[in-house]
Amino acid sequence: GRMWAYTVGFTVLPHVGGFLGWFLTRKEIPAWYEKLKKPSWFPSCKVFPVAWTMLYTGMGYASYLVWNDLGGCGSKALVPMGLYGAQLALNWAWPPLFFGAHNLNLVM
């Protein structure tokens, strides 16, 4: 009964930080990022929302599968879910740091 709610919750969660990152940096994209010199093979900015939607959906659903397979919030899930949470937090922090600082060294 309630498993669909867990599935949806885990799958949607990564999008929250992705949306906030976009919201905080949305003015920097046309003002700064689009003016950067990029290689000829660089994808269009229109590709990024589609790619990140797919990536965040995949990460979220995969985290649900791990959580479900390991029996929920037990000790078995602590390390894998902790590592997932840490990488997700770093993933969410990168756009505000990169766009806010205008620092290309953060890409490396």
UniProtKB/TrEMBL annotation:
Keywords of the record: Membrane, Transmembrane, Transmembrane helix
Alphabetical list of InterPro entries matching this protein: TspO/MBR-related_sf, TspO_MBR
Family per similarity comment: Belongs to the TspO/BZRP family.
Protein name in UniProt: TSPO protein
Pfam families found in the cross-reference section: TspO_MBR
Main subcellular location of this protein, as a coarse class: membrane
Membrane-protein topology: Multi-pass membrane protein
Membrane spanning stretches: 6-25, 46-67
GO CC terms in record: mitochondrial outer membrane
Subcellular location: Membrane
Signal sequence, renumbered to the chain: none
